[in-house]
C-alpha cells in the first residue's frame, strides 16, 4: 500500500522567488521529505511565514548521494555549487542519502477583465 502523496512543500523564503519564476526546477531533500509523487500538483509555501507562493507539478523523485551533487544540480537549483552544498549540509548534516525532486512551475492565468 502506498502512502498518500504530500500536497505541500516549503522552501526558505529567500529561495521562493526562484521557484515562482521557474528558474529553480529541482530541490534536494532527505528521505523524510521524499514522498512526493510524480504527476501530482503541490502548493509551495515559505518555511518562515507559511505564505503561499505558487503551485508546482512534481516530475520525478530520484536518489542522489551528497557526494554526487555537481554543477548540473547547482544549475537546476539556480544556486552556486558551493552555496548549494553548504546549505544542504546545514539543513541535513552528515546525510549522504538524499533525493532530487524535479518539478515544473504551474503558470497561473491572469484575467484580462
Ligand atoms: C523544511 C524546509 O523548507 N526545508 C528546506 C530544505 C531545503 N531547501 C532548499 C535549499 C536548497 O536550495 C535546496 C536543496 O535542499 O532546497 C529549502 O528551501 N527548504
From TrEMBL:
The EC code for this enzyme is 3.5.1.135
Active site residues of this protein: 24 (proton acceptor), 27 (nucleophile), 77 (proton donor)
Q: Which GO terms describe its molecular function?
A: hydrolase activity, acting on carbon-nitrogen (but not peptide) bonds, in linear amidines
Q: Which Pfam families match?
A: ASCH (PF04266)
- Domain (ASCH) spans 9-107
Which organism does this record belong to? Shewanella algicola
What function does this protein fulfil? Catalyzes the hydrolysis of N(4)-acetylcytidine (ac4C).
**Protein origin, superkingdom:** Bacteria
Supply the gene name.
yqfB
Can you name this protein?
N(4)-acetylcytidine amidohydrolase
Q: Which reaction does it catalyse?
A: N(4)-acetylcytidine + H2O = cytidine + acetate + H(+); N(4)-acetyl-2'-deoxycytidine + H2O = 2'-deoxycytidine + acetate + H(+); N(4)-acetylcytosine + H2O = cytosine + acetate + H(+)
User: GO cellular component terms?
Assistant: cytosol
Tell me the CDD domains matching this sequence.
ASCH_yqfb_like
Q: Which UniProt keywords apply?
A: Hydrolase
Family recorded in the similarity comment: Belongs to the N(4)-acetylcytidine amidohydrolase family.
